[in-house]
Design brief:
five-stranded mixed β-sheet; 3 helices; three-stranded antiparallel β-sheet; Chloramphenicol Acetyltransferase; globular
Length: 170
């Protein structure tokens, strides 16, 4: 039985040389109604980060600062429609149950870059432990004890690609 992947791939990089340029909080673009969302019993015991990574080819009509600003504005608008993403997990004092408190506390937003071209990073179809470096883990832009349910990150490479990372705590 033949392998689905037959060509030689370049060696995997161990240090992706990620530079964080800015990390901050962003907030809903419009006022939202404060409410709480009930969580099921399984939601009470299973909370974990879901990290999604999306690669996009660059477009000459959208330089890096425009891509960053558009993603930031899009997330701010999404925090209105999906109001729970700007909220926090809280314990309801009456029921003692964990709930999503839909508030305008906001989401994290990170701007980053890499010294490498995307082609140098290696085959994106196969796991590489170095890819974990792409997701910004330092939350020093948060107030102590604050845990946003969403962090968006735009990551640009030297030539022709953008990486958009979304991290959700669920």
């Amino acid at each position: 039985m033949g392998a689905a992947y037959d060509h030689d791939s370049p060696p995997l990089l161990e240090d992706l040389k990620v530079t964080i340029h800015n990390s901050s909080m962003i907030f809903p673009s419009k006022e939202i109604e404060r409410k709480s969302l009930f969580l099921s019993n399984i939601d009470k015991v299973l909370t974990f980060d879901v990290e999604t990574v999306h690669f996009f080819g660059a477009n000459k009509d959208f330089p890096p600062h425009v891509v960053t600003e558009r993603l930031k504005n899009a997330v701010e608008d999404a925090l209105v429609v999906y109001d729970f993403l700007g909220g926090r997990l809280k314990v309801n004092p009456e029921t003692k149950r964990l709930e999503m408190d839909c508030t305008p506390e906001g989401a994290g937003f990170v701007e980053a870059s890499s010294e490498y071209k995307l082609e140098q990073i290696g085959d994106l179809d196969y796991p590489n432990t170095a890819f974990a470096q792409l997701v910004h883990k330092n939350k020093n832009f948060l107030k102590e004890g604050d845990v946003p349910l969403c962090v968006a990150q735009v990551h640009r490479y030297i030539v022709h690609y953008y990486l958009i990372i979304l991290v959700f705590l669920f």
